[in-house]
Protein: Dynein regulatory complex subunit 6 isoform X7
Organism: Sapajus apella
Amino acid sequence: MASLRNANPRLKKYFKENYIPQVCEALLCGILVTCPEDPLRFLEGMIMVIIKSGLQNLLWDMCIAPSMKPNIRRLSETYLEQLFELDDQLMTPELMIKACSFYTGHLVKTHFGTWRDITHANQNVVLADKMNRAVTRYNFRLQKSVFHHWHSYIEDQKEKLKNMVLRIQRIIYCHKLTIILTKWRNRARYKNKKKEDELISKHELQLKKWRNRLLLKGASAGKSNLPEQSSSEVCLVGETPECDISQLPERAILQIFFYLSLKDVIICGQVNRAWMLMTQLSSLWNAIDFSTVKHVIPDKYIVSTLQRWRLNVLRLNFRGCLLRPRTFRSASHCRNLQELNVSDCPTFTDESMRHISEGCPGVLYLNLSNTTITNRTMRLLPRHFHNLQNLSLAYCRRFTDKGLQYLNLGNGCHKLIYLDLSGCTQISVQGFRYIANSCTGILHLTINDMPTLTDNCIKALVEKCSHITSMVFTGAPHISDCTFKALSTCKLRKIRFEGNKRITDASFKFIDKNYPNLSHIYMADCKGITDSSLRSLSPLKQLTVLNLANCVRIGDVGLRQFLDGPASVRIRELNLSNCVQLSDVSVMKLSERCPNLNYLSLRNCEHLTAQGIAYIVNIFSLVSIDLSGTDISNEALNVLSRHKNLKELSVSACYRITDDGIQECS
């Protein structure tokens, strides 16, 4: 509502003289308290009442029924005078603020003084109480710290005592086992010796009987005036002496039959009943190789053999066998089967694999190379072969990347440690990523004859397969130095590249830091490798095998730098075939720095002369050497004949060596 404080004085006078605030107050109070249904008619009636009673007798509750009047005390002449601000003497906001400030200040002063007096009186008591609490807390924390150290010491002593007791128990247990095994060994030796003595006595007795028969036969022959014959002749023409090998110990019989093929074992079982019983020893059928008789034995005999020895068969080899699906299905009866080789079997299908996987869940080694398996077989591998460790999918080109994705189903193939993907050119980068997700524990990886293999494939694989220790890449021309960089996260011990022109010295620059445990390096026919690579290989302390055949850019300088490092001490095998820049200087360095070298190949090293051959004699640990295609003569061959430990020597295509030189050497 608008204020009349600053209004025209004439207007203010008009309001006061005509009792307008009082009239509005009475009407407004009547409406607010009575709440009539028709407020206009109510106001009209009340205005007539006010007119009849006169403005001088106007009250604020005149328009309210007596029964509804509130019992409140009137504070001023009218409430609306202040509302309309007609009275200049009414309280203003400024005066109200001053009054409140004065009242508050007086109140604060009074109570603050009282509080100050009380606080000052109790300050010493509160301070003393706080000090007592602080001392109590300090003592508690000190006790807690001391107890914590004491508790740690006691727990450590208990752990040491427990370990000591366990160690003593282990020593006592080992001592008991030693005593038991010693007694068992002595008893077994005694029984074996007793059995052998009995067998020897039996054979001696039988031999004595044979001799008596021969003597009697010779005497009867002499009496009949026949020409005299020697005892050996009598033995030949007389009765054939009996010799039953079934009397030999079972271990000896097994050792004899282990040298026979499956075909020979079957033939031996047809000799007589004793030999048939010997060929039916259960240990003899732990490993069955049908590949040696694949063109002879029919399917029905394979089925009957597997049915009979199904509980003893541990290893099956069907390599290259052209069998019916029913024959492959019979392998599912071998519940204890651990190794299965069906490589190069054109009739082996996904259905055959389904039956085998359902019946032989304990397979550890599975070779499916060069078969017609598809994604269906890949789905079966993680579902049934939970302990599969070795898997070969070489040259299986009918499965896709989706099949590799199946390897992560169920329990997955997380125990796989060996994988062969040679010739699987259909695998893309995504396929290698699927392998990394499902086979994180791979240790040995072989990828040969795969021209589609790129650096991105290897990067996708090693993202999660960081435990790889052996990698073989033969026939992968697109692999470059980037692959070496990606493999730095793995713990490589053996690496093999052949026929790659994109591998350069940059791959070997930090090889001592990235691959400190490398023991085997095969880099045959890598034209980009020079002497700088050999210098980088010299710090490898674990290196034992190095193959740099056909690396034609390697010379005496690089080999000398390699041999000056710690790698030369443990090197056992060194192949430098077709490294045409090497000369006698390298051979001299080899004799000085390689005390453990066993195998050396210097094939087609044209600059090698008789002087270099003389240094080879000083490599006393050398067992085999290849000097084919070199320019050595009979004199050099005569020098090599002085080597005491040399067992194998190859000198093919050495045209200066004659028959006389070979005879002198022999």
